[in-house]
Amino acid sequence: MIRVLIADDEDMIRTALAALLRLEDDLEVVAECRDGESALAEAERLRPDVCLLDLEMPGLDGVDTAARILRSVPSRCVIVTRHARPGVLRRALGAGVDGFLPKSRPADDVAAVIREVAAGRRYVDPEIAADALSDERSPLTDRELDVLRAGARGETVAEIAAALHLSAGTVRNHVSSVLGKLGLASRQQATIHARERGWI
Protein backbone atom coordinates (compact mmCIF):
# COMPACT_ATOMS: atom_id res chain seq x y z
CA MET A 1 0.00 0.00 0.00
CA ILE A 2 1.11 3.53 -0.78
CA ARG A 3 0.33 5.77 2.20
CA VAL A 4 -0.79 9.25 1.11
CA LEU A 5 -1.20 12.57 2.94
CA ILE A 6 -3.40 15.20 1.28
CA ALA A 7 -3.19 18.92 2.10
CA ASP A 8 -5.60 21.43 0.55
CA ASP A 9 -7.38 24.35 2.22
CA GLU A 10 -10.49 23.86 0.03
CA ASP A 11 -12.56 21.34 1.99
CA MET A 12 -14.65 20.11 -0.93
CA ILE A 13 -11.64 19.43 -3.16
CA ARG A 14 -9.64 17.77 -0.37
CA THR A 15 -12.44 15.46 0.77
CA ALA A 16 -13.51 14.58 -2.78
CA LEU A 17 -9.96 13.74 -3.81
CA ALA A 18 -9.43 11.68 -0.65
CA ALA A 19 -12.66 9.75 -1.32
CA LEU A 20 -11.64 9.04 -4.92
CA LEU A 21 -8.12 7.95 -3.99
CA ARG A 22 -9.52 5.62 -1.31
CA LEU A 23 -11.26 3.70 -4.13
CA GLU A 24 -7.84 2.67 -5.43
CA ASP A 25 -6.72 -0.77 -4.16
CA ASP A 26 -3.11 0.23 -3.60
CA LEU A 27 -3.57 3.70 -2.05
CA GLU A 28 -4.33 4.50 1.59
CA VAL A 29 -5.13 8.11 2.53
CA VAL A 30 -3.66 8.45 6.02
CA ALA A 31 -4.27 12.18 6.59
CA GLU A 32 -6.28 15.11 5.25
CA CYS A 33 -4.90 18.54 6.21
CA ARG A 34 -6.19 22.09 5.71
CA ASP A 35 -2.86 23.93 5.65
CA GLY A 36 0.89 23.56 5.42
CA GLU A 37 1.58 23.66 9.16
CA SER A 38 -0.79 20.77 9.91
CA ALA A 39 0.53 18.85 6.87
CA LEU A 40 4.07 19.21 8.23
CA ALA A 41 3.02 18.01 11.70
CA GLU A 42 1.06 15.05 10.30
CA ALA A 43 3.85 14.09 7.90
CA GLU A 44 6.33 14.01 10.78
CA ARG A 45 3.90 11.94 12.87
CA LEU A 46 2.67 9.50 10.18
CA ARG A 47 5.63 9.41 7.75
CA PRO A 48 3.52 8.88 4.59
CA ASP A 49 5.05 7.58 1.36
CA VAL A 50 3.67 10.49 -0.70
CA CYS A 51 2.42 13.96 0.32
CA LEU A 52 -0.03 15.53 -2.14
CA LEU A 53 0.10 19.27 -1.48
CA ASP A 54 -1.95 22.14 -2.88
CA LEU A 55 0.30 25.00 -3.95
CA GLU A 56 -1.98 27.82 -2.73
CA MET A 57 -2.51 27.32 1.00
CA PRO A 58 -2.62 29.94 3.77
CA GLY A 59 0.59 30.37 5.74
CA LEU A 60 3.05 27.89 4.30
CA ASP A 61 2.37 27.32 0.62
CA GLY A 62 2.79 23.87 -0.96
CA VAL A 63 6.43 24.37 -1.99
CA ASP A 64 7.52 25.66 1.44
CA THR A 65 5.60 22.81 3.09
CA ALA A 66 7.27 20.25 0.81
CA ALA A 67 10.73 21.66 1.51
CA ARG A 68 10.17 21.41 5.26
CA ILE A 69 8.66 17.91 5.07
CA LEU A 70 11.56 16.66 2.94
CA ARG A 71 14.08 17.92 5.52
CA SER A 72 12.64 15.65 8.22
CA VAL A 73 10.64 12.83 6.60
CA PRO A 74 11.69 10.24 3.96
CA SER A 75 8.57 11.04 1.94
CA ARG A 76 8.02 12.17 -1.63
CA CYS A 77 5.99 15.26 -2.50
CA VAL A 78 3.61 16.13 -5.34
CA ILE A 79 2.33 19.69 -5.85
CA VAL A 80 -1.10 20.29 -7.38
CA THR A 81 -2.14 23.76 -8.44
CA ARG A 82 -4.88 25.68 -10.18
CA HIS A 83 -2.37 28.25 -11.51
CA ALA A 84 0.71 26.49 -12.83
CA ARG A 85 3.28 29.21 -13.44
CA PRO A 86 6.71 28.26 -14.82
CA GLY A 87 8.60 30.01 -12.02
CA VAL A 88 6.70 28.03 -9.42
CA LEU A 89 7.71 24.80 -11.15
CA ARG A 90 11.38 25.79 -10.96
CA ARG A 91 10.97 26.69 -7.30
CA ALA A 92 9.23 23.36 -6.59
CA LEU A 93 11.89 21.29 -8.34
CA GLY A 94 14.57 23.24 -6.47
CA ALA A 95 12.85 22.30 -3.19
CA GLY A 96 13.01 18.59 -4.08
CA VAL A 97 9.39 18.08 -5.16
CA ASP A 98 8.92 14.91 -7.26
CA GLY A 99 5.61 15.67 -8.97
CA PHE A 100 3.84 18.74 -10.31
CA LEU A 101 0.43 18.76 -11.96
CA PRO A 102 -2.61 20.99 -12.47
CA LYS A 103 -5.82 20.50 -10.48
CA SER A 104 -7.70 20.10 -13.76
CA ARG A 105 -6.41 16.53 -14.10
CA PRO A 106 -8.83 13.65 -13.34
CA ALA A 107 -8.44 11.62 -10.13
CA ASP A 108 -7.19 8.60 -12.14
CA ASP A 109 -4.27 10.72 -13.38
CA VAL A 110 -3.51 11.90 -9.86
CA ALA A 111 -3.45 8.28 -8.66
CA ALA A 112 -1.10 7.34 -11.53
CA VAL A 113 1.25 10.21 -10.64
CA ILE A 114 1.25 9.14 -6.97
CA ARG A 115 2.29 5.63 -8.09
CA GLU A 116 5.04 7.02 -10.36
CA VAL A 117 6.45 9.18 -7.60
CA ALA A 118 6.18 6.42 -4.97
CA ALA A 119 8.20 4.19 -7.33
CA GLY A 120 11.01 6.74 -7.32
CA ARG A 121 10.27 8.50 -10.59
CA ARG A 122 9.57 12.19 -11.14
CA TYR A 123 6.50 13.54 -12.94
CA VAL A 124 5.94 17.03 -14.35
CA ASP A 125 2.85 17.84 -16.39
CA PRO A 126 4.04 18.20 -20.03
CA GLU A 127 2.28 21.54 -20.63
CA ILE A 128 3.76 23.08 -17.50
CA ALA A 129 7.21 21.76 -18.46
CA ALA A 130 6.93 23.25 -21.96
CA ASP A 131 5.88 26.62 -20.50
CA ALA A 132 8.82 26.55 -18.10
CA LEU A 133 11.29 25.86 -20.92
CA SER A 134 9.94 28.73 -23.01
CA ASP A 135 9.68 31.22 -20.12
CA GLU A 136 11.82 34.31 -20.48
CA ARG A 137 14.99 34.92 -18.47
CA SER A 138 15.13 37.73 -15.96
CA PRO A 139 16.08 41.15 -17.36
CA LEU A 140 17.01 42.26 -13.82
CA THR A 141 20.52 42.43 -12.40
CA ASP A 142 21.53 40.32 -9.38
CA ARG A 143 21.45 43.42 -7.17
CA GLU A 144 17.96 44.38 -8.39
CA LEU A 145 16.78 40.85 -7.57
CA ASP A 146 18.43 41.16 -4.12
CA VAL A 147 16.40 44.33 -3.51
CA LEU A 148 13.14 42.59 -4.48
CA ARG A 149 13.99 39.61 -2.27
CA ALA A 150 14.87 41.81 0.70
CA GLY A 151 11.56 43.68 0.34
CA ALA A 152 9.38 40.68 -0.49
CA ARG A 153 7.41 40.93 2.77
CA GLY A 154 6.72 44.64 2.44
CA GLU A 155 9.87 45.91 4.16
CA THR A 156 10.50 49.66 3.93
CA VAL A 157 13.26 51.13 1.77
CA ALA A 158 15.24 51.81 4.98
CA GLU A 159 14.89 48.17 6.08
CA ILE A 160 15.98 46.89 2.66
CA ALA A 161 18.94 49.28 2.70
CA ALA A 162 20.02 48.07 6.15
CA ALA A 163 19.66 44.40 5.18
CA LEU A 164 21.76 44.84 2.02
CA HIS A 165 24.22 47.39 3.45
CA LEU A 166 23.20 49.99 0.87
CA SER A 167 22.04 53.57 1.13
CA ALA A 168 18.30 54.28 0.91
CA GLY A 169 18.96 56.30 -2.26
CA THR A 170 20.67 53.33 -3.93
CA VAL A 171 17.74 51.08 -3.03
CA ARG A 172 15.31 53.64 -4.51
CA ASN A 173 17.41 53.76 -7.70
CA HIS A 174 17.31 49.95 -7.99
CA VAL A 175 13.55 49.90 -7.43
CA SER A 176 13.09 52.60 -10.07
CA SER A 177 15.21 50.59 -12.52
CA VAL A 178 13.21 47.40 -11.82
CA LEU A 179 9.88 49.16 -12.39
CA GLY A 180 11.16 50.70 -15.62
CA LYS A 181 12.44 47.38 -16.99
CA LEU A 182 9.25 45.49 -16.10
CA GLY A 183 6.82 48.28 -16.98
CA LEU A 184 5.13 48.05 -13.59
CA ALA A 185 3.85 50.69 -11.17
CA SER A 186 4.83 49.32 -7.75
CA ARG A 187 7.47 47.29 -5.95
CA GLN A 188 4.75 44.87 -4.82
CA GLN A 189 3.74 44.20 -8.44
CA ALA A 190 7.40 43.68 -9.35
CA THR A 191 7.86 41.19 -6.50
CA ILE A 192 4.79 39.20 -7.56
CA HIS A 193 5.95 39.26 -11.20
CA ALA A 194 9.44 38.05 -10.25
CA ARG A 195 8.08 35.31 -7.96
CA GLU A 196 5.71 33.98 -10.59
CA ARG A 197 8.60 33.63 -13.02
CA GLY A 198 10.92 32.02 -10.52
CA TRP A 199 13.44 34.87 -10.52
CA ILE A 200 13.33 35.21 -6.72
Percent helix, as a range, is: 40-55%
Number of helices: 10
Briefly note the structural class of the backbone: alpha/beta
CATH architecture of the largest domain: 3-Layer(aba) Sandwich
Order of helices and strands: EHEHEHEHEHEHHHHH
Describe the global form: elongated
CATH superfamily grouping of the largest domain: Response regulator
The gyration radius over C-alpha positions equals 19 Å
- What is the CATH fold-level name of the largest domain? Rossmann fold
Main beta sheet:
6 strands, parallel
Which oligomeric state applies? single chain
Strand order, sheet with most strands: 2-1-3-4-5-6
Distance between the amino and carboxyl termini:
38 Å
CATH class of the largest domain: Alpha Beta
